[in-house]
Amino acid sequence: MHATFQTVKIDGRYVLDVSGLPEEGQDSREPVWWGNALLIIIESMTILLLLVSYFYIRRNFTEWPPPQPRTIPPLFHPVPDLPLPTIELVVMIASCFLMYWTDMAARRDDAPRTKLGLWIMLAICLGLIVLRFLEMRSSHLKFRWDDNAYGSVIWVILGTHLTYLLGAAAEFFIMLLWIIRHALDPKHGLDVTLAGGYWYWATIVWILCYATVFIGARVL
Amino acid sequence: MTQTTLNPSSLDRGMAAVSDPVPPEDMSEHLVLQRTWQRPPGFLGWLTSTDHKEIGLRYIKTAFFFFALAGILALHMRVQLAVPRNTFLTNDVYNQFFTTHGTAMMFLFAVPVMEGFGLYLVPLMVGTRNVSFPRLLNFSYYLYAIAGLCLFAGLLCNMGPDMGWFAYVPLSGPNYAPGHRMDLWSQMVTCVEISGMAAAIEIITTVLKQRSPGMSLNRIPIFVWAQLVTSFMIIFAMPAVTLCSTVLSMDRLTHLKTHFYNPAEGGDALLWQHLFWFFAHPEVYIVFIPATGFVSDIIVAFSRRRAFGYTALILSMLATAFIGFGVWVHHMFATPLPRIGQGMFTAASLMIVIPNGVQMFCWLATLWSGKKPRMELPLAWVVGFVVVFMIGGLTGVMLASQSLDLQVTDTFFVVAHLHYVLIGGAVFPLFGACYFWYPKWTGRMLNTAAGWWHLVLFFIGFNMTFWPMHDLGLRGMTRRRYTYPIEAGWSQLNMIATIGAFLMGLAVLVFILNALMSRRRGKVAGNNPWQAGTFEWSTTSPPPNYNYLYPPTCQGREPLWENPKESPVITGLSRQKRQVLVTTTLDAAPDHRYDLAGESIWPFLLACSIAATLMFGGIFNPWYAPIFATVVTLVLFGWFWTATKLRMAPSAEASTTGRPPFWWLGQRPINVKEGK
User: Fold this and answer.
1) Which residues pair with A9 in a beta bridge?
2) Given A66, B162, B301, B318, which is the most exposed site by the fewest CB atoms within 10 A?
């Protein structure tokens, strides 16, 4: 639909009548998409600077990760355990496809499928949060946050990504509640699309964090 | 009176799309719009206001309030330094004063006041009715206000930060700064920057999506461009400071004790400097670029011609913004960084002179070729800016050279330079902008005679205060010292600086009184007292709450001068809902209609709960953070839930009483009362 020029004069002026225009846009046509994108840039800057800090702190150590003398027996190459974060990585990448499917369902105003997708996404997200708590224990990371700067930085990187997971879970939960309580209207359909964008982004961030914290400890 | 006009079900999105009701005959269109855009009455209405003009002005007033407080602290410092071995302030109080002065001026005055101008003017200049996310606007203001009050409340409770406004570790770390002073500082900074980023999001989306049809990228007013560039800088720079201040708190909290900045455990004190200056150097441009926007608009208005070199001006701003991210190490020349790296940062710092020079020449050319520029007050302030900023720029070129910088680091030479750049580059244009736009805010002109007194006193006072500091710095007076011996030979210059500081204080007092008195007694301004060419001058002064009866279309860079008489205006936006026109990002072609959210208490609650999360969690015990974060989540749920509730299904009570029930806290149903 397009705005139409009318040669009607109001107060002696020509008017551009926009009453024929729709009341919703999709994707980047909506202001809220831009708001979301800018929030994502802000968070990307935060996590990128945190990852840069990791490499900056690396320069202060001869061994990476530094030996852990506080455990019995002392560990000389205390790399963090790999299985749990790898499971997270695989699950997150796989869940992106489900998220895409949910987004497409929301765009078609298909409430049952959107609801189903959101339910599964919420379950996956809660599962990932539990996994994250397990992998942040010092028995897995081999360091507490207050052991040394290495322990601090990996702990804060994982913790920051945990807040992204918590945010996503809260988002899936409230949208699900809205659709159950009310309906899938175009505005909330767009919210599902935005949550999708956020989820793909959280996955990309996890790939970077995984590569830095878990692979970095093995190759740097 | 037709039923469809006033039936609350017309608030339903689907219904309104079909038929936009015609206003009844006994209500003029003005009144309908006014009622639609009016905030609820009373204190709650004031608290929850989402009008960009009201919040923008509130930003400006609050920023000037903090400016005055920080200025009073500066006067105390100048009294202390006026004579050698003075005992007016103790060293501890002096430390708290200079830190709070710097922190307040940078975080609570310079950036917020520019944002306030942006929030007030950008929607008017692009020809729309409000910013894209009105509730976020309300939230960002309260978070800023709470943070600022916390800083000064801390100072009153002897909890004022005392480690300098850039809070270098290890001095600000747990070993050298016990107590909660620096915790308060770091959490305050985090709060203010979150609020700054929210305001930046507002401005970017409003500029990209709500420009009036026809206002393609090459027709955006220069001030709006400046705000856009600045907001993008905020988005990219401010995460660095929220990160580094949060991490500082984590290092300091006895319950956490991380080691980011602790060299004993492999941390790095220079990491702080890198992260902080990666934010704080762009911050200088975040303050300066909007000021160049003021200068451009004022010069164009008084030269009565389009800006000379519009494209060059915009590209200069963009270049300044880009290079501004690559010069932060010039604050760290006194640290043992690799020489080759320092050389590159010297080169980048010198390079920034080029875009600034281009801007200067464009302004001069605009003035030169203008039609008999009138030397009115705003333009006089701009001339003051050119003089003072030139001097600051020249010492900037000197300081960019690493060898000279090493000699004068942490002396009064740097103090002189930064005040010449920041006051010259930002405060002079800001005062000019106040004289320029005050008529738009209030409908009345500021008193001209008082304005000239303000300018002359401020100019003389400023140069008396800061010019001697160059000399003091070269003679070895280090900054942040609370006193000095008589043998140092700095007494005379310090006394001159103190007298100058009081002249500046007097000048600001004249300005404040002028602003307060002209509010009622000033000459009536009319819509366009300067005959300027941008959209905000086409509406009344002060503008109605809906900004434009018929939002305009744009056919030139200075639409009021260039739009042909028959250029169309926009109709067809709902009058019963707060609706704006969304246009395409590049060409600003009409795309769709977009409903804005109305007043709500949730943004205020969100600001309070985020402040509580950071302040309690970051200062006292980190376990407060998850507790208050849960509150933040619940408040966000409330915000989400009420944003659309009444649009979807207006409740029955609302339609009968005309008011939502007291527990509702949600969007006020618009125009329901008139239905009865």
Assistant:
1) A14
2) B318
Q: Which residue has the tokens 């507002």?
A: B202
**Cα end-to-end distance, chain A, whole Å:** 56
Q: Do A38 and B243 touch (CB under 8 A)?
A: no
DSSP state of A27: G
SS (H, E, C) B270-301: HHHHHHHHHHHHHHHHHHHHHHHHHHHHHHHH
Q: Can you say how many angstroms the Cα of residue B116 is from the centroid of all Cα atoms in its chain?
A: 5
Bridge partners for B594 per DSSP: B580
Angle at B609 between CA B604 and CA B612, to 5 degrees: 130
pLDDT at B458 over 90: yes
Sheet with A4-10, edge to edge strand ranges: A4-10, A13-17, B569-571
Q: Which of residues 151-210 of A touch B (CB under 8 A)?
A: 151-153, 155-156, 170, 174, 178, 182-183, 185-188
* Average pLDDT estimate for B582-592: 92
Query: pTM of whole model > 0.90?
Result: yes
- Token couple for B627: 């507790």
For residue B119, give the DSSP letter: H
- Residue B210: list chain A partners with CB under 8 A: 31
Cβ–Cβ of A42/B641 closer than 8 Å? no
Q: What is the pLDDT of residues A157-198, one digit of tens each?
A: 999 999 999 999 999 999 999 999 888 888 888 999 999 999
Rounded CA gap, A217 and A206, in Å? 16
Indicate the pLDDT class of residue B27, thresholds 50, 70 and 90: low
What pLDDT is stored for residue A10 in this prediction? Answer: 64
Cα B233 → chain centroid = 13
Question: Can you give the pLDDT at residue B291?
Answer: 96
Q: What is the pLDDT of residues B157-192, one digit of tens each?
A: 999 999 999 999 999 999 999 899 999 999 999 999
Residue A148: list chain B partners with CB under 8 A.
259, 265-267
Q: Is B2 exposed, middle or buried (0-12, 13-18, 19+ CB in 10 A)?
A: exposed
Which 3 state secondary structure label does DSSP give B430? helix
Give the pLDDT band (50/70/90) at residue A4: low
Residues B133/B210, Cβ–Cβ less than 8 Å: no
Q: What is the mean pLDDT of chain B?
A: 89
SS3 for B186? helix
Site from A7, A17, A34 to mutate, B interface, most B CB atoms within 10 angstroms: A34
B290 contact partners, CB below 8 Å, separation of at least 6: B114, B117, B118, B223, B226, B227, B230, B426
CB contact under 8 A, B572 and A155: no
C-alpha distances in Å from residue B571, one per residue of A3, A14, B551: 10, 10, 8
Instruction: Note the pLDDT of residue B28.
Output: 78
Neighboring chain A residues of B566 at a CB cutoff of 8 Å: 13-14
Say if the Cβ atoms of A21 and B640 lie within 8 Å: no
The band of A7, judged by pLDDT with boundaries at 50, 70 and 90, is low
pLDDT above 70: residue B621: yes
Among all residues of chain B, which has the CA nearest to that of A22?
B592
Q: Cβ of A43 under 8 Å from any chain B Cβ?
A: yes
- What would the two tokens of residue A10 be? 């109001």
CB A109 within 8 A of CB A184: yes
